[in-house]
Prior knowledge:
Radius of gyration: 17 Å
Structural class: alpha/beta
Strand order of the largest sheet: 1-5-4-6-3-2
Distance between the termini: 32 Å
Mean pLDDT: 79
Helix content: 25-40%
Shape: globular
Amino acid sequence: xxxxxxxxxxxxxxxxxxxxxxxxxxxxxxxxxxxxxxxxxxxxxxxxxxxxxxxxxxxxxxxxxxxxxxxxxxxxxxxxxxxxxxxxxxxxxxxxxxxxxxxxxxxxxxxxxxxxxxxxxxxxxxxxxxxxxxxxxxxxxxxxxxxxxxxxxxxxxxxxxxxxxxxxxxxxxxxxxxxxxxxxxxxxxxxxxxxxxxxx
Length: 200
């Protein structure tokens, strides 16, 4: 696990903004104005106020990501972040937190609990919000982190698994669901009161 910090602005104020996907009708010539195209990354969704999830963003998604006003990205793959993405983060004052979880396939899946735990601590720290959690496809590694977050929020397992399966679809893994079921949230003693779903 490593956390890579790319300095953000001076403000410590966390802000939450609404997201609108803007589409533009094609002009008469049939050409599109690329500057007005906002394309979210694969499997993009809002998890909670100030927390988003997705698959790996590429340069075609950068305009959309700018609308989120991100402070941080939680990246769950061991591979180095591409230079174009690093430059985008640097120019937008977004911090990168990298937690290298191998993308193994069943039946040889080894989900490192301590790494997921450290990633989850970063996710619930509101000083890092708004943030985006992503892996390659936004299914397994991202699904495990979000599923463990839902346990902290006291969701029932049925709802946690339903959400996981919506993103994983036919690629859903029993090992991921078992990991989420057994994940011990009792060690998270200091959960921020500002964390929206925990105010209930």
